[in-house]
Design a protein that fits this description.
By secondary structure, this protein is α+β, with helices and mostly antiparallel strands. The protein folds into two domains: 93 residues, OB fold (Dihydrolipoamide Acetyltransferase, E2P); 300 residues, Bira Bifunctional Protein, Domain 2 (BirA Bifunctional Protein, domain 2), CATH 3.30.930.10. 30% of the residues lie in helices and 25% in strands. The chain contains eleven helices and 16 strands. Strand 4 and strand 5 form a beta hairpin. Helix 4 runs antiparallel to helix 6. The longest helix has 31 residues. The radius of gyration is 26 Å and the shape is elongated. The chain starts with 15 loop residues before the first strand and ends in a 21-residue tail after the last helix.
Length: 438
């Protein structure tokens, strides 16, 4: 039998059907009982009159606890007086499929209580049982699907790079070490080197959505030790602007799909709206962005060669107010702030960019240096031992196209779509310095 979701019950008026879900609310009155049943799609009221023919049903409801699961078989009726969707189910059978303990360890609906966050994370399986949280992960699914669809339609292929590495990736800093059959190996910080290997393999355009690991002892609202990274790399580019063109098109596609798929639910639940970009994303050189912040907001950042968090907020505020964009690219960063493999222009600046969205960096990207002699010189400038990168340099010995790409922080993006101030709330199961359970 095909599963019937509660959201679709308006297709079954005056028909007997079966639905399954959690017991959301129970009202046991003198002459009538009401159950609110929910599944991942919606809620419905089940109405049971207290009378002799319903005695067995009445006894089942009287003994029920909230958050138990039930299967209800009954008649779907239009009921304009019922506030919840103007319909109800009159049951002929209620089967209790599992029983919840009477007292829950958390108040599921008290999700704004920040002092309770650790307890909620300890009981994340309960914490996730709200419409609000379900919508976050529904949005994550839609966003990933929109990106995948765009890339596949534009001749990208998906790869799955290894997460266990024999050599520490990129700078070698902030990596997790593992014991591996008598030797030390590392968890991948990013798929960067392997995306570039795919370019040397002639794959042209690739993407990956997968976990990455950062051994940062950071307790901020924006950091996690394991998170989902969205990466892509493309060959035969002229500059980093080609990569930005791609990401802008991808993100407009994502915002359109989000608005079309969950726009109404989003507005109802979060009292806000999903805004599809109306203008091209501004592209502001790093040095110019620094001046804009100093001149307009009288703020001098903590870092000479990079942005601090306050600067990210301020340049986004400027882009929103002056340029009508929630998205802004900051481009052409100094080499001091970037990895050795970013290509340099004639000024000695990197052909790189960050994409900022509503006050936070969600993407870092660049044109990569594909000439092995230049690549080695830049590694030396960063004081990286060349022998530690032998496997990487090997990718560039036998011809490799000019290429570039970016890494996108899916969780940070979701934070800003939903205006949520902590990455823990948009991560299915958060991992941080003090949390590896459940």
């Amino acid at each position: 039998m095909e599963k019937i979701y509660i959201k679709d019950l308006n297709n079954y008026f005056n028909k007997e059907i079966s639905i399954s879900g959690f017991v959301d609310k129970i009202r046991d009155l003198q002459y009538v009982q009401f159950l609110i049943i929910r599944d991942s799609s919606a809620k419905i009221q089940v109405t049971i009159e207290k009378e002799e023919k319903n005695k067995e049903l009445n006894e089942i409801v009287s003994s029920l606890t909230k958050e138990s699961t039930v299967k209800v078989t009954g008649l779907v009726l239009e009921a304009p007086k019922v506030k919840l969707r103007g319909m109800e189910v009159i049951p002929s059978k209620i089967e209790v499929t599992s029983v919840s303990e009477d007292e829950l360890p958390i108040d599921i609906l008290d999700y704004n209580n920040k002092s309770n966050q650790d307890l909620r994370l300890d009981n994340r399986f309960l914490d996730l049982r709200t419409e609000r949280n379900y919508l976050i992960f529904k949005a994550q699914t839609i966003a990933e699907n929109a990106m995948r669809k765009y890339w596949i339609d534009h001749n990208f292929i998906e790869i799955h790079s290894p997460k266990i590495l024999g050599t520490a990736s990129e700078s070698g800093a902030e990596v997790f070490k593992l014991e591996y059959f008598g030797k030390t190996v590392y968890l991948a910080q990013s798929p960067q080197f392997y995306k570039q290997m795919a370019m040397s393999a002639g794959f042209n355009n690739v993407f990956e959505i997968g976990p990455v690991f950062r051994a940062e002892n950071s307790h901020t609202a924006y950091h996690a030790t394991e998170f989902t990274s969205v990466d892509c790399e493309m060959s035969w580019i002229e500059s980093h602007h080609d990569v930005m063109d791609l990401e802008e098109a991808v993100m407009v596609n994502v915002m359109k799909d989000l608005k079309e798929s969950i726009g109404e639910e989003f507005t109802k639940t979060f009292k806000n709206e999903i805004k599809v970009p109306e203008v091209a994303f501004p592209r502001i050189p790093f040095s110019e962005a620094k001046k804009i912040i100093q001149e307009n907001y009288k703020y001098i950042g903590e870092k000479e060669f990079d942005f601090d968090r306050r600067e990210e907020e301020l340049i986004c505020l400027y882009a929103r107010k002056k340029l009508n964009s929630d998205f802004v690219f900051v481009i052409d960063y100094p080499f001091e702030a970037r990895p050795f493999y970013h290509m340099l222009d004639e000024r000695g600046l990197t052909k790189s960019f960050d994409l900022l969205y509503k006050g936070i960096e969600i993407t870092t990207g660049a044109q990569r240096e594909h000439r092995i002699d230049v690549l080695k010189k830049q590694a030396e400038l960063k004081e990286i031992p060349l022998e530690s990168l032998d496997f990487y340099f090997n990718f560039f010995k036998y011809g490799v196209p000019p290429h570039g790409g970016y890494g996108f922080g899916l969780n940070r993006f979701l934070m800003k779509v939903f205006n949520i101030d902590n990455i823990r709330d948009v991560t299915f199961l958060y991992r941080g310095p003090n949390r590896v359970n459940p």
